[in-house]
Fold this sequence. Notes:
By secondary structure, the chain is of the alpha/beta class. It contains 11 helices and 12 strands. It has one domain: TIM Barrel. The protein has helices at 102-106, 114-122, 145-148, 150-161, 178-185, 201-207, 214-226, 247-257, 273-284, 289-299, 317-334, and strands spanning 11-12, 45-46, 50-53, 60-62, 72-74, 77-78, 107-110, 132-134, 165-169, 190-195, 231-238, 261-266. The strands form 3 sheets. Strands 4-5-8-9-10-11-12 form a 7-stranded mixed sheet. A 3-stranded mixed sheet has the order 3-7-6. The chain starts with 10 loop residues before the first strand and ends in a 27-residue tail after the last helix. The mean pLDDT is 91.
Amino acid sequence: MTGNPTILPGQRLRARGAESNRAGRFEAREREAFDDGWNMEEEDRLVATEVRIERPRSALTFNRSPDLPFDRSINPYRGCEHGCIYCYARPTHAYLNLSPGLDFETRLIARPGIASVLEAELRRPAYAAAPVAIGTNTDPYQPVERDHGIMREVLQVLQAFRHPVWITTRGTTVERDIDLIAAMASQGLASVSISVTTLDEGLARKMEPRAPAPKRRLQMIRRLAEAGIPVRIQVSPLIPALTDHELETVMEAGRDAGAQAANTIPLRLPLEVAALFRDWLAATVPDRAARVMGRVRELHGGRDYDPEFGKRMRGQGLWAELIHRRATLARKRLGLGEGLPALRTDLFQPPPRAGDQLTLF
Length: 361
């Protein structure tokens, strides 16, 4: 048998990030395509996107990570059709007994009804408002959002409750919701971060096959900023020996488009992502594969990834310090902040429901 053992005969990949469908870490068995000898001719077929439905029982996910500037998040979708090969969220698909490889970008989970669940959670008497992050795991504005509209329903609930939200995306559908986001931003309740990894469109298409082109993302920044929405450009992940030379150029392009702030996070390769990324390097940039991985290991203490708090988001050693200094100097030269203004929490108020008794005052 030749070719990729996890891709079935007759299957073709087009605009996909992963080169394989490796089994997740919880699987007891590895999957392998097998030629049974019948040699029946079939037409080649593209690996298609499949969307399943999950009825959510909870909306808010809480964390206590000292590395994150938020303690709660919402995930309207599981998996992401953008197919970014470096995505640190890929390992979450293993919890669904699906592969962090092709399954992550082709077997998606939509969560309709999450807005109603969110409303019930926000009405709990003990709930205390704090900014909620959306898009820090999988992108809420990936292509399937155009059909399902789950993110817009979530935003409508947050707006009704005057609840602060921080959105991270690279999906153009965010422009559909400018009306809601701008209205919330005018009250200090919303900001958006747009991820731009590289300005090289050819490289972007290979790394992020179904995400908008870099120029289109800069246009998104411009449209959001023109609507009065605070925007940050995220040059993340910064990939050593592949995209790190673009750090200042991407920040400047973001500033010129209207971004108020910029930050960067070095490449992270947790769990199954490391092998998937190595496969991609070997297939896409074989002449630089060893150099890229060598520099990645320098950033993470000699390993593909160091999950330790305080190190995983920044890296360590000479190269990590150099990236930090470059980013600091670039922000100073360009007049950019590292973060956006803090979102307000004092406006939070559950709206009245039909049948609720009105107050006298």
